[in-house]
C-alpha cells in the first residue's frame, strides 16, 4: 500500500527583493496511514514550510508531494481543492471565526462544500459531543478558554472527514494540563477514526507523549527520522541530541559524562509494588514511552509468582513536567508513588 504522505526530493526557495532563501532542501519523507508523526526542529528550521507543502498551501520549488499515491503537482486547481478536503489543519492560535457561534464555526466548512444547513448543524452538534463541548454550541469563541477553542478547531477540522490532520504548534499556546487533554483528544481521534496526524512542535514532551514517528529538521534538511522511541533513545547527531536532551555538548558524548549529568540532575521517586500493580515490565516500558533513562537508586523487591512486590527508588529527570507524567504513568499501573526528599543511601 502507498504511504499516506510521500515527500520526494522537495525543495522550497523563497525569493524576495532579489534575495534567495532555501527553506527546504531535498526533503524525503514517508508517513504511513495511522501514524502520529512529529516534525521537530529549532525555530526557522523549516517545519512550517514543510507542513504547508503537504497540502500545497505552499508549492514546492522542486520535488513531489504525493497523498495516497496522487501527486499534488499534477492536479488542476479544482482537483487540488477537492484533495485538500482530505487534509485538515489546526493552528496555534485556533483561527476561529470570532463573530460566529461555536456550532456555526464547525458547520462552516460543510456549508462551503454545499451541505444543507440542517445537516451541517446536525453533524456539527455530533462533533461537539466528540470533543466534549456539547454545552457550548451557542457560545462565541471569546467566551471559551484556550483549550476549549482548540477543541472547537479540532471539531471543525474533523467536519469534512479528513484522512490527515496537520497540527501546527497546536498546543504551544496552552498550559501543560490543557496540552495534555488536547493530546489525549488527538490520540483518541487517531485511534477511533484512523486519521493520520502530523504534528509540528518545539515541545519534546508532546512528541514523547503521542508521536509514533518523528523527523528532525535542521536548516531545511531532515537530519534524522524514524520511530520516536529509537530517535529519542538514541539520537545520533549532535543537533538531535541538543534538541531532545536539551543541552549543549561537545561533539563526543562519553557515557560517563552522560551518567554524571543524569545523576546530578535527577529527582527521586519511591514506588511501591503491591497486589494491584500491573503485570508488565513497568520501568522498562516507562523508559521506552518517555524516551529518557531512569536510575534505580535502591530496590527492595521480590518476585512473587511473577509479580514484583516491595519498593524501589528511582532517579528521574529533573524536568517537573516529565516527573509529573512519570508519576501519573506509574499510578495508572497501580503503583503507589511518593516523592523522596532525603538522600538515598
Ligand atoms: N514567505 C516567506 N518568504 C520568505 N522567507 C520565508 C517565508 N516563509 C518562511 N521563510 C523563511 O524560511 C525559513 C523557514 O521558516 P519556517 O517558518 O518554515 O520555520 P519553522 O521551523 O516553522 O520556524 P518556527 O518554529 O519559528 O515557526 C525561515 O528562515 C523563514 O524566514
Automatic annotation (TrEMBL):
Keywords: Amino-acid transport, ATP-binding, Cell membrane, Membrane, Nucleotide-binding, Translocase, Transport. Residues 5-244 form the ABC transporter domain. InterPro entries: AAA+_ATPase (IPR003593), ABC_transporter-like_ATP-bd (IPR003439), ABC_transporter-like_CS (IPR017871), ACT-like_dom_sf (IPR045865), MetN_ABC (IPR041701), MetN_ABC_transporter-like (IPR050086), NIL_domain (IPR018449), P-loop_NTPase (IPR027417). The keyword Protein transport does not apply. Coiled coil: none annotated. GO terms for biological process: amino acid transport. One of its GO terms (molecular function) is ATP hydrolysis activity. SMART domains: AAA (SM00382), NIL (SM00930). PROSITE patterns: ABC_TRANSPORTER_1 (PS00211), ABC_TRANSPORTER_2 (PS50893). SUPFAM superfamilies: ACT-like, P-loop containing nucleoside triphosphate hydrolases. One of its GO terms (cellular component) is membrane protein complex. Gene3D superfamilies: 3.30.70.260, P-loop containing nucleotide triphosphate hydrolases (3.40.50.300). PANTHER family: AMINO ACID IMPORT ATP-BINDING PROTEIN (PTHR43166), METHIONINE IMPORT ATP-BINDING PROTEIN METN (PTHR43166:SF30). This is ATP-binding cassette domain-containing protein.
